[in-house]
Amino acid sequence: MKSFADTVASYQSFFQDVAAPSKSHLRAEAHVECQRDWSPLHTLGEVKMWFENRRADPGMAILDIPLADCREWSMDPATGFLGHSSGDFFYVQGVRVESGAGRERGSGWDQPMLTQVGFDGGILGLLRQRIGAVPMYLVEAKAEPGNYRLIQMSPTVQATFANLRRSHGGRKPHFAEFFEAPSAHGAMVHFDQWLSEDGGRLTNKRNRGMLVELPEGTIRDLPPNFLWMSLWQIKECLHEDAWVNPHIRGIIAHL
Q1: Alpha-carbon distances, residue 204 vs 67, 90, 114, 194, 212 (angstroms)
Q2: H runs (alpha helix) in the chain
Q3: Which of 64, 89, 92, 252 sits between 20 and 30 A of 146, alpha carbons compared?
């Protein structure tokens, strides 16, 4: 692998040649980022080793239990919905579709749906920070109980507003402050838009997708489940089986 200085100089030279005179434009730079692996920190092989190591020790075990045994979840006798004792997060409700013209079962059907309290889910935020001259993206190897093989590459922050409010009584997600108040940290917001979610199982849900760039050197130390990745590395990992979750894909799709 090239030295840090050589990698940074190579990126600057290539970008100036290819992207000028519009080199300040984010989309033009993204094209340059995707040409090759500019990372001055890790090779793709090292990224894959980090991810496989996280999957080998996810720190989470899942046990299937009856819905009636879920602690702090109960059926509301007035609505018949299954909800959390805090009144936050989401609830499970039934819907009856009276007609479904154009669908496989046009006569309608009944099904359960997950409904976010307030409908707006949370923040899906990806941090960008230059290391040298090279844009890098902060990715988490995140454990979720429903993930295929538990761990997937996820945005820097993937948290509902209930989690950000700490309705669960736990800690706030790492790096949340950069998305809640980016200007307070001198950050540049490249993308901030509501993104829709799967309407086949979620009721009117949307999440706030964000791409936020921090001044170089803002973040130096990382928890072990976080890693700076180049855009090329993220896209290369799309060739792996269920490594990169849909939220990262949704955020970088605008580039």
Answers
A1: 24, 12, 10, 12, 26
A2: 4-19, 26-33, 44-56, 161-164, 177-180, 231-237, 246-252
A3: 252
Q: How far is CA 98 from CA 95, 108, 109, 138, 188, in A?
A: 9, 5, 7, 45, 47
Given a contact cutoff of 8 angstroms between Cβ atoms, the answer to whether 184 and 178 are in contact is: no
Name the domain count of the chain. Answer: 2
DSSP-assigned letter for residue 87: S
Count of beta carbons in the 10 Å neighbourhood of residue 139: 27
Residue 108's contacts (CB-CB under 8 Å, 6 or more residues apart) are 96, 97, 98, 99, 100
Q: How far apart are the first and last CA of the chain?
A: 27
pLDDT at position 142 is 97
Q: Of 74, 93, 55, nearest to 225 (Cα)?
A: 55
- pLDDT category of residue 18 using cuts at 50, 70 and 90: low
Q: How far apart are CA 106 and CA 109, in angstroms?
A: 9
Q: Report strand pairing: 134-143 vs 82-84.
A: unpaired
Residues 107 and 203 in one domain: no
Q: Is residue 23 part of a domain?
A: no
Cα-trace Rg, the chain: 21
Are 90 and 42 in a shared domain? no
- Whole-model pTM: value is 0.88
